[in-house]
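Encoded backbone
================
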Amino acid sequence: MDARRLASHLSVSGQIVPDALAAAARAGFRSVICNRPDGEGGDQPSFAEIDAAAQAQGLEARYLPVVSGAISDAEVDAFAEALATLPRPVLAYCRTGTRSATLWALSEGKAGGAKTEIAAAATAAGYDVSGALRRIDANGSPPRETEDLFHSVVIVGGGAGGIAVAASLKARKPDLDIAVIDPADIHYYQPGWTMVGGGVFAPAGTARTMASLIPKGVHWIKAAVAAFEPERKTVILEGCRTVRYDRLVVAPGLKLDWAGIEGLAETLGRNGVTSNYRYDLAPYTWDLVRNLRSGRAVFTQPPMPIKCAGAPQKAMYLSADHWLRQGRLKDIAVELYNAGPVLFGVKEYVPALMEYVRRYEAGLHFQHTLVRIDGPAKRAWFSRKSEDGGSETVERAFDMIHVVPPQRAPDFIHASPLADGAGWVEVDSASLRHVRLPGIYALGDACNTPNAKTAAAARKQAPVVAHNLLVDMGHLRGPEVSYDGYGSCPLTVERGKILLAEFGYGGKLMPSFPAWLIDGTKPSHMAWLLKERMLPPIYWKAMLKGREWLAKPQAVDKAA
């Protein structure tokens, strides 16, 4: 916990974890304010977890979430009221501490505090609240006449898509002025979390510092994006700073909506409730699998779209395989509750998957969406669609449950002019260029392209965006290239065997290897070796370094 003092009664910090509350209590804090909405990051504990840990330490906790860059006067007033009524001193936190510091600066300014003193206190704590001070001067409306930064290409997001496209751009034009905007200190190899939950990978092997991955010569702006002003070619950062650009690439990933299931946030990581979709919870999955001797193990899948649609059943297969090998499966009922109508969206892979469903005697329940969970009571409730279009609520008991939360575009994307009607970045599915706004491209999970949301898709999309953007800027000659919808889902059906599903738009099979080496419609040990030993170094040392092995883009067919 890195608590930074702003005033005698208030310190702020970046994201804290439940275990940090004991240290906070020892440091003398008596209250905690959370200014970060649940579900912003893959390693973010929910407020319910923080609240429970705070209560255990005798601290009072309050949830005052604010969306980055969209702090309202009402939220400033709520923050001021919390500071006035909560036991002091108070620790406030968000992703980096910036939102909490901004709320304090705005509340102090609104109360008539001297701007020089506000700025000095924030600067001493390491926070830039100049944007908030300009807002105070403008009586609540942040002015846009002061532009802090400019880069030729600005990339929003330092995940797989953002780093990969930065590296691909540098590989093509080393002197290009590029900036990546991302507030995170850690970059995660999220495809590895399924293997962590299966006891194959160690968690630490799926994480590296962001600083070690930003390509050489690329500027890293360690901040959160609040909003877009495409008509001015400007990105608004948290704290009201601005960054201008010639071209913009948007790759922020998606939001895991843990709060979208009633009761889930309060019980994650205990009571047998887990998820491989969070870095800190994947090891708990493996603990539950190892220790379960009998009972019912439930695995859930929410409505599409989600990150890696095969991941919910991967967790089921690896768990059931362990129980089978340990001789426990006969005492454990395995059940998959899927919001969709089929086991897998590409029919060619279903027969092989069904063999494993039968091997593990798993119960399949389609059109079932998890809507509520009671961890201490070990009960879950599903909304089940009927054939006549109606629905009913189904209650199930569990001893272990692996939950996949509903997923959507990040809030700052959903509310932006870049979004389509469903909140996703609206791009042409081949060129990955925005369909309405010139000079803007997007890739990865936040796009509205109808492909599988996987790291393999981002690996293919990054060179397409890099090439087309440089053609657009006049740095490359020749035609645009096209993304064909390729995505890959290595389905871990048992320890040592994988069904390597590779497909593009419309479910077209797109194998990368000859059938004699890897037949994607059949489980194989070779595909397992690819997943276990080759894909991680390909990710770290090729994809994020601009080396486009099996990812060279193809020219657009203008006649099509």
Observations:
- The domain at 4-137 is CATH 3.90.190.10 (Protein-Tyrosine Phosphatase; Chain A).
- DSSP finds 15 helices and 28 strands in the chain.
- The chain has three domains: 4-137, 149-254+409-551, 258-407.
- Residues 250 and 442 are 4 Å apart (CA to CA).
